[in-house]
Amino acid sequence: MSAYDRQLLQAVRKYPYISQRELAAELCWNTDRVKYYMKKWKDKGGLRRVGSTHKGYWQVLIRVE
What CA dihedral angle connects 19, 63, 50 and 42, to 10 degrees? Predict the structure, then answer.
């Protein structure tokens, strides 16, 4: 797991209701990087969106150290 992976997953765990745009601002990344890493973890089964796109939240399904 890279440092980018850890940063993203820790931020999502801390702020589960955060949008991708807000997450990019929080991490000082561009939105394309956030989208890339979120898709990567969704495809691996480590990240899941619960609920709708506007009122839902992110759930981290793996352990992040």
Answer: 70
> Do the beta carbons of residue 2 and residue 64 sit within 8 Å?
no
Bridge partner residues of 58 (DSSP):
49
Rounded to two decimals, the pTM is 0.85
List pLDDT tens digits, range 40-52: 999 999 999 999 8
Q: Using only C-alpha atoms, what is the Rg of the chain?
A: 11
How far apart, in whole angstroms, are the C-alpha atoms of residue 54 and residue 40? Answer: 21
| Neighbour-count burial of 3, counting CB atoms closer than 10 A to its CB (0-12 exposed, 13-18 middle, 19+ buried) | exposed
